[in-house]
């Protein structure tokens, strides 16, 4: 081990569609443009599952360590690690430590909780950019957040409320209503597309945030006020959608897609720094549902699939 390498436990994708395996992996010594980060917590997101089953980036290298966001320490200072293809095009962050590009590391501001920071690299960045950069939510807006109990949805609720907007959230589970209200929603709708269509129409939102797709899109297009905006950042209910295109153009609606993979390095860093600052100021609330040990990584996937997560799910990587 005199070459500077190190052996760590890591959650490895061996074959698409098969359970991850926690194995010992030897890390290389960092090159000039890379650093070795000791990792504490890693975020678990739908994109991680899509990568595991081969739905996203099926040609990525195998075997590899998964995990696209984590928080830990670099030379004793707390840091967030995300981006640069981690977990997708190269080994990721679900490990005790990782050798990562320097560009993937962002120092945490004073007062930032390292556990909450682990949810900022993907979920926090998505929420911040959807609310502030795409929808540009203001106090004049009426906002509906579909999937408001999810990791991103819960953050969007808090950010939109902090902007002064009137915020309604949607969930399919009555037991998730109270936490959504705690995140800042003025009202919570419970039900699927047909069950909430009339109430959304009455609300006439100016902005809708949609991580669901499928049958939710049509009633949102129907309900949106003229010049309203739909921000799509996921299709967990289904990617194929049907809606009345005539309503879209006659009401001058905007359909905006958020793709985090399209951000360049400068955009990603600026967004991460803004998201971390929003946590410090209290504008962005981070709801951590559970923290599972690394050995239970496949249980974490099952919780996501079964929609049992309220907010964000983390792995303890130590």
Brief summary:
By secondary structure, the chain is α/β, with parallel strands linked by helices. It folds into two domains: 6-119 and 286-316, Medium-chain alcohol dehydrogenases, catalytic domain (Quinone Oxidoreductase, Chain A, domain 1); 124-260, Quinone Oxidoreductase, Chain A, domain 1. It has helices spanning 46-53, 114-117, 120-134, 151-162, 177-183, 193-203, 217-223, 245-250, 265-281, 297-305, and strands spanning 6-13, 21-27, 34-44, 64-65, 69-74, 77-82, 97-101, 105-107, 142-145, 166-171, 187-190, 207-210, 229-232, 254-257, 288-293, 312-316.
How would you describe what is shown here?
- The chain has helices spanning 46-53, 114-117, 120-134, 151-162, 177-183, 193-203, 217-223, 245-250, 265-281, 297-305; strands spanning 6-13, 21-27, 34-44, 64-65, 69-74, 77-82, 97-101, 105-107, 142-145, 166-171, 187-190, 207-210, 229-232, 254-257, 288-293, 312-316.
- The strands form three sheets. Strands 3, 5, 6, 7, 8, 15 and 16 form a seven-stranded mixed sheet that branches.
- The chain contains ten helices and 16 strands.
- It has two domains: 6-119 and 286-316, Quinone Oxidoreductase, Chain A, domain 1 (Alpha-Beta Complex), CATH 3.90.180; 124-260, Quinone Oxidoreductase, Chain A, domain 1 (Alpha-Beta Complex), CATH 3.90.180.
- β10, α5 (177-183) and β11 form a beta-alpha-beta unit.
- α3 (120-134) crosses α9 (265-281) and α6 (193-203) runs parallel beside α7.
- It is of the alpha/beta class and 318 residues long.
């Amino acid at each position: 081990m005199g070459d500077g390498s190190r052996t760590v436990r890591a959650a490895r994708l061996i074959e698409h569609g098969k359970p991850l395996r926690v194995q010992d992996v030897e890390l290389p010594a960092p090159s000039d443009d890379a650093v070795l980060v000791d990792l504490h917590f890693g975020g678990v997101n739908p994109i991680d599952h899509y990568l595991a089953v081969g739905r996203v980036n099926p040609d990525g290298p195998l075997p590899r360590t998964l995990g696209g966001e984590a928080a830990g320490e670099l030379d004793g200072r707390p840091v967030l690690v995300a981006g640069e293809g981690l977990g997708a095009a190269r080994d990721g962050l679900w490990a005790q430590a990782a050798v990562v590009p320097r560009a993937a590391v962002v120092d945490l501001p004073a007062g930032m909780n390292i556990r909450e920071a682990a949810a900022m690299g993907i979920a926090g960045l998505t929420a911040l950019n959807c609310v502030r950069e795409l929808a540009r939510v203001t106090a004049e807006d009426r906002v509906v957040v579909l999937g408001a109990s999810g990791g991103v949805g819960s953050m969007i609720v808090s950010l939109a409320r902090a902007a002064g907007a009137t915020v309604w959230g949607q969930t399919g589970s009555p037991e998730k209503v109270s936490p959504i209200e705690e995140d800042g929603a003025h009202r919570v709708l419970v039900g699927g597309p047909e069950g909430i269509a009339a109430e959304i129409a009455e609300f006439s939102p100016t902005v809708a945030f949609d991580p669901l797709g499928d049958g939710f899109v049509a009633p949102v297009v129907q309900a949106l006020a003229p010049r309203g905006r739909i921000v799509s950042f996921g299709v967990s209910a289904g990617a194929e959608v049907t809606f009345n295109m005539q309503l879209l153009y006659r009401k001058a609606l905007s359909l905006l897609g958020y793709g985090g993979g399209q951000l360049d390095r400068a955009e990603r860093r600026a967004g991460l720094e803004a998201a971390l600052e929003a946590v410090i100021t209290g504008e962005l609330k981070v709801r951590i549902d559970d923290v599972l040990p690394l050995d239970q990584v496949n249980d974490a996937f099952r919780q996501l699939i079964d929609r049992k997560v309220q907010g964000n799910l983390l792995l303890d990587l130590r």
